[in-house]
Amino acid sequence: MIKKIWHHKPFIFLLLIILEGCSLTGYQMYNLGLQSYDEGKYFSAVEYFTRAIWDDPTNAQLYYLRGNAHSKLNNYEDALKDYTRAIKLNPEKEFYQNRGLAYLTLDDYVNAANDFSAALNYDPNNSELHFNRGYAEALAGYYDAAITDYTNAINFDSSNAKNFVNRGDLWAKAGQHEKAIFDFTIAISLNPEDELAYYNRGNEFLALKKFENAIHDYSKTIEINPHKTEYYFKRGEAKVMLNNFPEAAEDYSKIIELDPENGNAYYNRGICYANLNMKDVACEDFTRAGELGFFEAYEVIKEYCKKEVKQNKKKKRK
Question: What is the value of pTM for the model shown?
């Protein structure tokens, strides 16, 4: 009986030719990476840029792009490695800038500031870079340097409200209330919906005992964002300073509506009721404040409500 013999080698050779013909080039991987990145498919972008790097391992742009994809995935340590590799291969402004942003996200403010400085060597009139360096310097505690950078950012772009807001915040920290108010006022003129500018300016007016002005600004922040309890706290405080206890009580009631477990709000409302000679409801609020852990209320209950109170005490473990 004659057996038919199959020869496999030509078939394998043909298969290899077909596979080689179907393989993607590094350039194609690069384009697929860009497409994936633009579509928000950052995992795929990382994979495509990695395969492109295999084909061209000395291409700084590929490491930079993969670093950007890692940043989008919050993989900042991997992003730092890629940006650093890109900088070693061919330093560019964007490489330093994005590595600085990665350092900033990782709370490494000194290295972030250093990278923004390196980027500024390429583009010294860049307002955003001055802002970013100022932001890093402020977080690192270098307030004078940060004010200088925010001022430079303003000189190169006086239309951006955040430059004025951030410089104003540093003036406020330095106790320069009038300068802070000036910056916040300009920020508001540039962006009338900037709740932080109104809130910060309100705080400065409060510090200067300009309570009506403070109430106006806090009211504006509440109009923009009615869900933030700290705005009502501040407006209530300003109203108390004007002895406007009924309206202050309304602000604390709003806080309780937003956050029913807020003992501080119950305590403050109790103070308002006490000043309005509404003893029963005041004592109810003081009691509720104590129950919620605002223990200062118990002393007021003893003195004002003339009641003996029992504080909850945790038992010690044996």
Answer: 0.83
